[in-house]
Amino acid sequence: MIRINLLPYREARRTKRSQFLAAALLGILLLAALFYYGIYSIFSARVASEQTKVNYLQGVTTQLDSKIASIADLRKKRDELLAREGIITDLQDKRDMVVQVFNTLAAETPNGVFLTHLQQSGNSMTVNGYAEDNDQVAAFMRNIDASKIFTEPQLNIISKSKLGSEEVGQFTLQMNIRKPTAADKSAQTTGTQEVQP
């Protein structure tokens, strides 16, 4: 038996072609969606890993900031302790210096010179006194200049005045006090160690 297709064959071919194109378009859309989802998941994984790195670095930075702050506090405390140590050392030196100043003045004052007033201001000292003769004041200045504690004696005033019934010279002498050097300090410490039994 012969079959005759009464339907127009071109329309059937068009419908098949349109179905094929629709299926191809749907497949392409599905592939594009899968491709987009893959790229999105890759980039979101990278962003998440970078975010974890950033969070880790922020945590480390916070820890380092706290350590830096503690180091700064320690440095400040160290500087304060060094300043206190310097003050204590200066006071220790000055404590010994007073004894040395009086011992030196007593040893270097020649006979016939009488000291009446001492005034210290910083490293400068002013001495007032009486002398029987101007040569004795000159000898006193030479002794002061040769001493280990005093430097640069300068005679400011010398005048004649009466002390009781005698005529004497009244003088004002200004001098500087030497700061002890490290060699002087070591010599003093070795000297004190040798004296100890």
TrEMBL record:
Keywords: Membrane, Transmembrane, Transmembrane helix. GO terms for biological process: type IV pilus assembly; type IV pilus-dependent motility. InterPro entries: Extracell_DNA_Util/SecSys_Comp, PilN. The chain crosses the membrane at residues 20-43. It comes from the Bacteria. Pfam families: PilN. This is Pilus assembly protein PilN. It comes from Acidithiobacillus thiooxidans ATCC 19377.
